[in-house]
Design goal:
Length: 88
């Protein structure tokens, strides 16, 4: 009887996949905050990441205002942008 064996195999595969971890949604945050402000950005991201399991904020220092904007402009033309970008 192949049908019960197939059903059993499918049930085992389903049960094993039920415990699989669903990947977090990555949110890429490009910024132009260096020094103390950059440390604050990193702490904001770390605190948020520790507070929940659905999203992961990934801060990335892209240099000064001009450097950050250049990265954003280039990524738009390449269609590989960050989730959001801030410059102050």
């Amino acid at each position: 009887m192949k049908a019960p064996k197939t059903i059993f195999s499918a049930a085992v595969a389903l049960a094993m996949s039920a415990g699989a971890v669903i990947a977090k949604t990555e949110v890429h945050w490009w910024h132009a905050m260096g020094g103390t402000n950059g440390e604050r950005v990193d702490k904001i991201a770390a605190d948020f990441n520790a507070s929940q399991n659905d999203y992961e904020i990934i801060p990335s220092y892209k240099g000064n205002y001009t450097g950050n904007n250049d990265c954003s402009d280039c990524s738009i033309s390449c269609k590989r942008t960050s989730t959001f970008s801030t410059s102050f």
